[in-house]
Specification:
This protein is α/β, with parallel strands linked by helices. Helix content is 44%, strand content 16%. Helix 5 (106-118) crosses helix 8 (184-193). The longest helix is centred in the N-terminal third of the chain and has 32 residues, at 8-39. The radius of gyration is 25 Å and the shape is elongated.
């Protein structure tokens, strides 16, 4: 019988054992994280999650092309007096293209919720397609002021978190203005998204 390096069966056994040890270590460490995570449920101090929750506590805003806003009749044409939307507002929103940061963001969910409340479809916009008044179209990837202001995307309005929202509407030469920010409609749609 040869020594270990020359003995392929022993070498295979050692590799197998090493792999098993690593897999067990990973499983045990994940179990420890899950147990630790579950132990936090009864605690009032959940600092690990507070950091994540406080990344953006300034809210989001909806910006709109000033010409679109003007042609549609101003802010009051888009919202009811209590900042809600319903089917009566669908004609103002229908056929517009909105920029969102991405499909997995709360801003995207908020716009989808607004479209639903008005009875509009929330549909991915594809360049050159005919716009229908029964849909609010979206483009994803508009996740900062530079992109929104670049003119690369033909959007009528967009939704973004602070401070990017303010950078868009306050930028010199920007054709975007505030449609709504930090008010009941944003908070309402955030709550609806998590039901």
């Amino acid at each position: 019988m040869g020594t270990w390096p020359e003995d392929s069966d022993n070498m295979l056994d050692k590799r197998t054992i090493s792999t098993i040890v690593v897999v067990i270590a990973i499983i045990v460490s994940m179990g420890a994280v899950i147990v630790y995570d579950n132990s936090l449920q009864d605690s009032e101090e959940v600092t690990a999650y507070n950091v994540v929750a406080r990344v953006n506590n300034e809210g989001s805003g909806i910006y709109i092309d000033s010409d679109v806003l003007s042609s549609k009749g101003g802010v009051s044409a888009f919202f009811n007096d209590d900042w809600s939307v319903d089917a009566s507002k669908a004609a103002k929103w229908g056929g517009l293209i909105v920029g969102t940061p991405g499909a997995a963001t709360i801003q995207h969910v908020q716009m989808n919720t607004l479209a639903d409340e008005m009875g509009l479809k929330f549909t991915l916009y594809e360049a050159g397609q005919t716009l229908r008044t029964d849909a609010l179209y979206y483009i994803t990837g508009i996740n900062n002021a530079t992109i929104a202001l670049s003119g690369t995307y033909n959007i009528d309005l967009g939704i973004l978190w602070e401070p990017q929202f303010s950078a868009i509407v306050e930028s010199v030469g920007s054709h975007f203005v505030t449609l709504v920010s930090k008010n009941g409609i944003i908070k309402k749609t955030e709550l609806e998204a998590y039901k």
